[in-house]
Amino acid sequence: MNEKLLYQIRVYFSSEFSKIFNSETENPQKILLNNILIKHRAELLSQYDGFMGYVREAENKGVDNYPLYQWTKDCLGDDNKVLKYKNSYTVYINNEAVYIMCMADKIEKDLKTIVDGNLFIRISKHDTNPINNPQIPKKYVK
Q1: pLDDT digit string (tens) for 18-42?
Q2: What are the CB-based long-range contacts (under 8 Å, 24+) for 80-85?
Q3: Are the C-beta atoms of residues 44 and 92 closer than 8 Å to each other?
Q4: Is 127 helix (H, G, I), strand (E, B) or coil?
Q5: Given its phi and psi angles, is residue 25 left (phi above 0), alpha (psi -120 to 50 degrees) or beta?
Q6: What is the pTM for the complete model shown?
Q7: Angle in degrees, CA 21, 22, 23, rounded to 5
Q8: Mean pLDDT calculated for residue range 13-20
Q9: What is the dihedral of CA 90, 91, 93, 94, to 10 degrees?
Q10: CA 43 to CA 131: how far, in whole Å?
């Protein structure tokens, strides 16, 4: 095991729960989720919002310095992907998108207790090993 790898937890909501999560609406599942996030000093950011932020920053600062700009922008032009990204959230712990394994394991364990397969669909853990992550398609490589 490579101890230098960092990890990220993602959570996947139904469209219904995404609306609840992003509203002022109270819901037992949302309360449980928020309690877990508070316990771990964590926040959620939808992949959609993360991608939009990346595209806006690139456009403001110059897209030449953002190698994933066109790929990300094209993904945001695909309605099916947008729906997926709006219901997929990255867990940030202490404002970091990736963290050491023990932190990932702890929040993953707690989050698994509220996965119901209906509103809170599933959780996934990703690592920073490039072999385990999608590589930029050749058409976007300069």
Answers
A1: 999 999 999 999 999 999 999 999 9
A2: 82/48, 83/15, 84/47, 85/46, 85/47, 85/48, 85/51
A3: yes
A4: strand
A5: beta
A6: 0.90
A7: 95
A8: 96
A9: 60
A10: 27
CA–centroid distance for 23 within its chain: 18
Q: What is the DSSP letter of 23?
A: S
Indicate whether 142 pLDDT > 80. no
Amino acid at 104: A
For 44, the enclosing helix (H) or strand (E) is strand 42-46
Residue 2 has a pLDDT of 54
Position 3 confidence tier, pLDDT thresholds 50, 70, 90:
low
Residue with tokens 């990300």: 72
The SS3 assignment for 128 reads coil
Could you identify the residue written with the tokens 């310095």? 65
Query: What count of other Cβ atoms lies within 10 Å of the Cβ of residue 28?
Result: 9
Pick 142 or 48 by higher pLDDT.
Answer: 48
Q: What residue type is 74 in one-letter code? A: D
Contact 37, 43 (CB under 8 A): yes
